[in-house]
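In this section we walk through a basic example: taking a raw amino acid sequence and producing a predicted 3D structure, encoded as discrete structure tokens. The instruction is simple. Fold the sequence below.
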Amino acid sequence: MIVGSAARSVRDKRKVRRNECRWFCPNRRLHRPVDPETADRRVHAPRRPGDANVHNKLGVVRLQQNEISSAIAQFQLALQANSRWYPAANNLAWLRATHPDAQYRNGAEAVRMAERILRESNSMRPDFLDTLAAALAEVGQFDQAVRVAAKAIELADSAHMTELADKLRLRQQQYSAGQPYRDSSFSADE
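The resulting token sequence is shown next.
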């Protein structure tokens, strides 16, 4: 046991290390100083490599950094760690259905994943239905995409998710016009 000024010194160092990390950091023991200019792009390696939640969050960060291939790999690692981790499956299906760059899209895979999410989760969440509608439109099943989007709009309205419902209405109009949705939040180049 450390006592006296040595104990205060150790406590102060731990406190500084905890405060140095200003970003998602699952590994509390390996804190490193963070440059404030790059803090939004920095993610520490996961302490538990098989943690689906960590891999999903890393995938989201990689998307924000426009590292699409790395994001796909992280979502796949999350699903390998836990095949029922629906946020990662939904993120991957959305990316596969709506990315502006054709090399990242795979409509058939997106439909399979979105249908599996809805079937296994027993949850009719509007965001899951939104992903299924986008995937159906990607494979050219526009009538079915319109119906699924209508159900998602109904659920979003009943849950008072007005922003999502408005976005769903715009997408539904695209599907009615025979156009798949392309998510403009993805940048086209990696």
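Looking at the output, two observations stand out. The chain has a mean pLDDT of 80. DSSP finds eight helices and no strands in the chain. In the next section we compare this with other chains.
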